[in-house]
Amino acid sequence: MTSSPTRVLTDDELDLLELALGGAIERLPFAGQGPVVLTDTENTPLAEVAADGSLTPLKPIATALGPQWDEALRVPARDVAAGAAPGTTAVWLAEPPTLEDATGIADVASTNDVVLLVPVSRHTEPGTVGASGLTRAALGIAERIQGSNGPSRDATRVVVVPWPHGEQAPAPSDIAAAYGAEQILVPPAGRSERTRTSLAALPRAYADALRRVYPETSAREVERAAAAGHQQGTVVFFTGLSGSGKSTVARALAAELDDEGLGTTLLDGDAVRHHLSKGLGFDRESRETNVERIGYVASLVAKHGGIAVAAPIAPFASSRAEVRALAERAGARFLLVHISTPLEVCEARDRKGLYAKARAGAIPDFTGISSPYETPLDADVAIDTSQVEVPEAVAIVRAHLGLPG
Questions:
Q1: Do 306 and 339 have their domain in common?
Q2: Is 247 annotated as a binding residue?
Q3: What's the pTM?
Q4: Binding residues for ATP, per the UniProt record (predicted)?
């Protein structure tokens, strides 16, 4: 780690960094002249920008669960381009392909290599298919095409590539070129009028079905009740030592739930410190204030039917109890998840070198070293991430929430 100044990246900037490190864009539009170290909201150094604008990777960008994060699929642009044959066609899959789209893609794949580009946003709009679903749909198309080719045919290549698509992402044609494609196909543009009409009718299908069963006045009341239905909100509150894995599990859980359209808000400890609790110290009073602020915001999210996932260290039982009370007063479910990874494991996996600094006296009031951590006696779930992998940890939490895995 250098002594260069640092810049904490937003989600969109993290996506641009991944594109730059993978060779999809030449320079970062936000970095300016270096040297500067680029970090995530957990202050993990990810890359350093030199005076000439060149990038040196330092640590991997944090990933989450879901096929869109699979390393075998999320291949850097330069590597995909290196394997692209002349005439390679990119297919832009920003929405699930229809049967007509699938046929068109198969026709292209009969003569040219195809790269199915899945733009992966970190935020899914309610009611839309998220990145996990789009990636699974793309894999299904690829499997269908390759299966129809037969084992003996010298088939063209069909590659599924999820790529980071933030608000500042380059144009589709530029991304397609970066991944080695000479042309780009955007399925909605070529759909027939029949398919367009069928898709447009889908949102009315439920209403039309109601009117085949009920008289008009009854149908309106059933529709109104369905629209006004209020889902009970939930607060999932993770607590644990620095380096225990709570942020990793919380991010993975929030990403999965959000991708399923469940309206999830992530309140991670370090990110909150940059915004909601900026200026607070790390003495006991400041720590409890920070946790209670997180709990208050989480209770507001849950009060209106959302899911709030929070992941501060939250070392003190009193502030954790206050967060539980805030959620329950809001009429929300509350799940306290203790990430119980042992101190020695947390210290060994420390990405930011904080434990070493704390033991050297450079960081006062550091939880687990110079400040206590009060082990929860009322945890609803306890998970040791030195024994349980992240996907299994997420499945355990989902099961306690009554959500299918």
A1: yes
A2: yes
A3: 0.70
A4: 240-247
